[in-house]
Amino acid sequence: MRLSANDSRRKGRLCHGHVQLLGRDVPISLVTLALTEAMVLMAAFWFAVELRFPEGAVPGFYEVLNVKLGLFVAVNLMAMLCMGLYRRGLSGSLADTMVRVMGAFMLGAVLLAALFYVIPSLFFGRGVLVLAGILAFVGVIATRLLVGQLLGLNSLKRHVLVLGTGKTASMFKQICERSNEQNFELVNFAAQGNDTSVMDPAVLVRLDRRLDEYARLHHIDDIVIAMDDHRGGLPIAELIACKMSGINVLETSDFFERECGFLKLDTLRPSAMIFSRGFRQSLYRDFTKRAMDVMVSLGLLLVAWPFMLITALGIFIESRGQGSVLFRQQRIGQNGEAFTLYKFRSMIMEAESDGVARWAQKQDPRVTRFGSFIRKTRLDELPQLFNVVRGDMSFVGPRPERPEFVGDLSARLPYYRDRHWVKPGLTGWAQINYPYGASEEDAFKKLQYDLYYVKNQGIALDLMIIAQTVEVVLWGRGAQ
Known about the structure:
Layout (H helix, E strand, L loop, with lengths): L4 H7 L6 E4 L2 E4 H25 L12 H18 L11 H25 L7 H20 L1 H5 L6 E6 L3 H12 L5 E7 L13 E2 L5 H7 L4 E4 L10 H9 L3 E4 H9 L9 H6 L7 H36 L7 E7 L5 E7 L24 H8 L7 H7 L3 E3 L6 H10 L12 E3 L1 H5 L6 H17 L2 H17 L5
Parallel strand pairs: 3-4, 3-6, 4-5, 6-7, 10-11
Antiparallel strand pairs: 1-2, 8-9
Helix pairs in contact: 2-3, 2-5, 3-4, 4-5, 8-9, 12-14
């Protein structure tokens, strides 16, 4: 875990850090990978054109060639994003990567075909499309094997120095070690203030010079304050010098928010909820979000109605015409108001005949065979599109919970009611980052993602969640 000064200088600062993209902190390593693969896509398209038309293209082909090239690159990059290929910390096997890349190019081909139908002048031929897709597939896989290895080196990670050696610092270290999505490297832990050390001496360092000098010498990117007691122990002048020299100074909750995409409630102070950036509401944001909800939901209903019809027929046949096809249940929405949620029924009738509300469990005996299928494929969620159109829900937001669970969880979990400042959603930040919750512990962990969304909500984040939901549906992550 430790990094010497010589190693740091040799590795340099190439591709360190984050950049702001659509209001989000994006690791430069991922940006570099995306730009490299964009160049691979461009090269694949040009080679495909040369192979397909070695003696010149058909009349009119080259008239909008740059537009066609840009379209091919942009659509396939978006498809790769939808397949989770630019998700931070994606560490699948080569076979998994190949399946995702193949799925991305198939999705890209479908999207391009739809665009060709709408704008025929952009059509560049099936031969070029197939050849470019094959060449791009080979190029992207090679990039993931070769360039991806370089991007995974420690030189491309942020170097983090932690101030503190007590319980907070120990918890910080344990969480970082459990995470498989690290874009940073913990360099050392430095004692400050009145903390009683509980850390392994091997990861501790004695600051033999001013903090800002030590940080510059060791190419520190972030200094995280993880002290049990801040009073009288912070080197204020030195931290200001670090900040003025471009080094980030963060508390543990801010660090986890940036790197892991959740609010760490164990370390979150009430003042951070009040004074920090975020948690903003506005009429403009509400209007744009509502407009997007209606457009996306109506568009999906136009596409999904045949699947909804087949699903309803499957439930009707399995239950031999007994019982309702739709399942209705009271859920808590924005500002704590109750509404009726609609889903396709996936459980037996009278699943809670004793009137006791229960969490859904893995291998739940109440789930029917066809119900298990529609749960895994998320077909049971499609009727919620009508809830979105009605305004009960948004397309993106926290998962709506039952009144019985909300009352209990609000009494046990801090800030739980604050997730209801926004409308619940059909998909959400917690849904794509954490498996299906079936306990109070799961509810607490998902709450940390929900509050991150409430704090940072915006159209850019909503669009990213919608894109990553495609991956969740196709790969079945989080299905119960």
